[in-house]
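Our preliminary data section would be incomplete without showing what the modeling component actually yields. Below, a chain of 340 amino acids is followed by its predicted structure, encoded as tokens that our downstream tools consume directly.
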Amino acid sequence: MTANSRYRSRAPRSDDGEEKDYVGFATLPNQVHRKSVKKGFDFTLMVAGESGLGKSTLVNSLFLTDLHKDRKLLNAEERISQTVEIMKHTVDIEEKGVKLKLTIVDTPGFGDAVNNTECWRAVTDYIDQQFEHYFRDESGLNRKNIQDNRVHCCLYFIPPFGHGLRPVDIEFMKALQDKVNVVPLIAKADCLTPSEIKKLKERLREEIDKYGIKIYQFPDCDSDEDEEFKRQDKELKESTPFAVIGSNTVVEARGQRVRGRLYPWGIVEVENPAHCDFVKLRTILIRTHMHDLKDITSDCHYENYRAQCIQTMTRMRCFYLQRERVLFYVGRRVSFSQVW
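Predicted structure:
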């Protein structure tokens, strides 16, 4: 009797004598799904850009919530002395039984000063602090309930009235490109015509390649994906950087109530793909690429930080060991000289 026949003989049989080929490990995805739904999900999104570009409005439009109820708007005189701050807002969202702990990290004051030299320092320091906290918790004794506050994605808002990337835009994205997934956006796209948006996108893509800026890259489709999914993925890649519009106001258009902005010449619909890329941005952030953003943060950006920490700790340990060894031999020489 061979090993294969011996294992087959132990398999349960049905009433008609036929073997049951079903073992049960095919239900593992269902088990993982139930466990994940029970535990819930967390996602940290950072928004950066100068004031007045609609960052808060866009976030509220994306997640259908109001994260800035008590926000105080500063006047022009107060903005002169304002420095870059880090403001964190956390909200629990539930949809069809799935719970999401959403953390929005805002950066008021960025790019508003006359001198914006190293205005991104507070942002990079905050991202490194979250890496450090996670590294300490991961290296501690209680690793069961680790809070993941690492920044998974940064939406960077580019003004629509420029002719491309400004020096502060280039320096900011290059400072963050190895720490977080950077997704550039063209803010307030309703200020531009479709042809102007197309030209600005082409200009931004050229400058991103020219200056070697590493933004978030969509993963390649698997060969077994259907043609419709491949078409949508190609369309998303060709739409970057996304031209977005945010609005929490409900207006009436063509007999339907939609979220949009009402102007004397017409209505701009936020969720109309012909008007802006809001739906595409929401698709990658929530429906298709949220898990990939978290994976890249954990497997790439955090691992690079963790490797640097371990190398630093190893060098420090070797230094102290070498120092102790030198002191030991120096002490022995002193003792021998005293004896003689």
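The chain has a mean pLDDT of 79. The beta strands are 41-48, 87-95, 98-106, 153-158, 182-186, 242-243, 250-253, 256-263, 266-269. Preliminary results of this kind motivate Aim 1 of the renewal.
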